[in-house]
Amino acid sequence: QSAVALGTARLQGEMQQRCSELTMLAAASSALSLSLDLEQVLNTIVDSALKVIHCDKSAIFELSEDGETLGLRLSRGLSEAYCEASRALPVDRSGRARAVVTREPLIVADVFREPNVEGYHSLASQEGYRAVIDLPLLARDGMLGLLSVYYCDVHHPTPVEVEVLTTFANQAAIAIAN
Predict the structure, then answer these.
(1) How far apart are CA 139 and CA 49, in angstroms?
(2) What is the pTM assigned to this prediction?
(3) Are 32 and 175 in contact (CB under 8 A)?
(4) Average of pLDDT values for 91-96?
């Protein structure tokens, strides 16, 4: 009986967490749909990512018109030095901008144990993050940039977290495209 009670308590906790996430996501979506101010929309997205999925830092990068560089548009929790160094990141097939090239989310649970993300190692050391998720901002016209979230500890995101982040990335892409 004790195992059943523990299982029930765990499921109730998960349901409460999911309800909280959905409530925050609905509130963020509502705020986004009411605003036509791009800066306000993007700020709401990075702030909501922090609250909803409990990451430690978040940022939005925009792809240059020529598709050669990513530039930091805005961030939360990242140092001034990081922001300055992220004004024009080259887009290549490895490391930092891989999600732009592949148009697929890049999920790195532990930057220091992933050999294919060399571009993250020095930045992660300087900024004190251990895990990162980059989601492409895709619109009808193509790739627009990235939504990035960072965790100070090793983090294996749940499918729900990735789904919520994908929703935020889609909202950011729509706002930028419009």
Answers:
(1) 20
(2) 0.81
(3) yes
(4) 64
